[in-house]
Amino acid sequence: MSNSTKAFFSFLLVLVIASLALNVFLLWQWLSFLQQAQEVGREAQLAISQAVADLGDFEQAAIQFTVPVQNNIPVKMEIPYKKTLEIPVKLNVPIKQQVKAQVPIEINGVKVPIEVVVPIDMNVPIDHKQAVTIDLVIPIDTTVPLDMEVPVDIKISYTELGPYVERLRSMLNSMNEALSNRLP
Prior knowledge:
alpha+beta, 2 helices, rod-shaped
């Protein structure tokens, strides 16, 4: 073999070795990049999982504040009231009186009225239950002053933010599942 052929083969050998070295370097860089991408994917999964948990906590969180109420409220109404009550009556009524009365006496077929005074001295016992019906309308016309603090407690999920937070959480869950399926 001639020197030029040897030089050509040597040059080709150097080119093949350089190409192999370049391919090994590129493969090493690619594997390093893949390993970094997997690490970034795992970190992204952890971050997404944490974001999903935080969004769940945010949905359950509440906005709390108090509203001062200072107002006069006019009240004008009629309240019907109807009730029957049984009232027990238990007492002694003393009667002390003289009563004049005419008593007709018949003498030989003739009736003659005689005036008589009858003394009455007695106690009359009364033991009775009397039903009393109360049927009336009570008019109310007044002003009620209000001076109070009303506590307000609203869950985020009940506000207009609720559906948006739910959609964001659902989207992040889908991303997390997609990452799980693609990472080894």
